[in-house]
Design a protein that fits this description.
Layout: H1 10-18, E1 22-26, H2 39-49, H3 59-69, H4 72-94, H5 100-107, H6 114-120, H7 133-139, E2 144-147, H8 153-160, E3 166-169, E4 196-199, H9 214-226, H10 233-241, E5 243-247, H11 254-264, E6 275-279, H12 290-302, E7 306-310, H13 313-325
Parallel strand pairs: 1-2, 1-5, 2-4, 3-4, 5-6, 6-7
Amino acid sequence: MTNSRNSIDWELLKRRIRTGKLTPIIGDRVGHDGFLTSTALIQGWANKIGYPMPNTQSITRVSQYRSVTKDPLAAKEDYLEYLKQYVLKQARQQQNGPSDFLDTLEDELEMLSFSQVAARLKYPNFDDDTMNPLKILAHFDIPIYLTTSFHTFMAQALEKSNKTPRLELCAWHDESGPSPSLFDSDEYEDNPQTPVVYHLHGMDADPATLVLSEDDFLDFLVNVTQHEQAVPNRIHQAMADSSLLLLGYELQDWEFRVLFRGLIKSKPTARRLMSICIQLDPRQNEAGTAPEVEKYLETYFREYKFEIYWGDAQSFTQDLWDQLGD
C-alpha cells in the first residue's frame, strides 16, 4: 500500500518506463536479505584479517587496511573468497537434507565467482515476481540498468524474466572494462529484451575491477571526472536525459557520495529530469532527530530535482508494480 507521506508522480514515472526514459541505479542493499552489508559479515572479515582499528562496520575501511598490509588486488580477492565461504556456511546452517551438493560446491569454490556460488545456492530467490525488487525491475521495459554492485544479481533477475542481459564494466582504470565496449559497436541499439547492466564499480568475475577500498573510490572519482571517456557516452546520456531511480543508498556511504558527486551532480541541472531517491523513513529509528534528518535529506536532493520516497526498495518497487497494474 502506498505510503501517504509520499507524493510521487506515479503517472509520470509510468510514462518514463513506457518510453525507456527511466534509468535505475542500484546499490548493494537491494535484492537480497541484507547480508552483504551486515555488520556480522564485515566484522567477520575484519577479524579474519586481523583488522586492528575500532571501526569494523565499514567494508571500505577494512578493505583499505588489507590493501595497505597486503596489496590492492589481494584485498579484493580475499574479500570475495571470504564471501563465498560465508554464503556456503550460511547454506550449511540452513540445510535440512543431504550435504553432498554443498560438499561438491565447496570443492569447486576456487573456480567459481561469488555470483556463481550464490546462483547455485539459488540465492537470491527470484521465484516470486513481487517479492524481490530486482525481479520487479526486470519486468519493466528498461534498456539500461546501472549498478554499483559487484555481483550479477540484476542480470540473474533479468534472465529469470526471459530477457538476455548484456553486461558491461566501467573502465575506471586501465585494467577494467571490455575492449572494445559494446557501445562502440555500430550495431548497438537500446533493446529492453537485451538490456545492458552497466557495472560502475566492477564485477566479482574480475577482482581487479572492484571499487572497494578508500583509495579505489578516490581513484574512481578522479578518473571518471577527469577522463570522460572512462564512462561511455550512452551512459552519460542515460544519466542526463532520463529520470534516475536511486535504490539502496545511504547518504554517508562512499559508494553514494562518489557516485553522486562524480556522475550525477556533474550533469547540467537545467537538463535533468525528475528523479527519485529511495530512503528509509528516519522516523523508524533515531526518533529524536528524525524531523531534522528528513528536512536535511529533502533539502539536499531537491536542488538536483530528486523526489524522496520514504520507504525501502521493496516497498517502492511493490508500489510501482501495483501502479502499473492499475
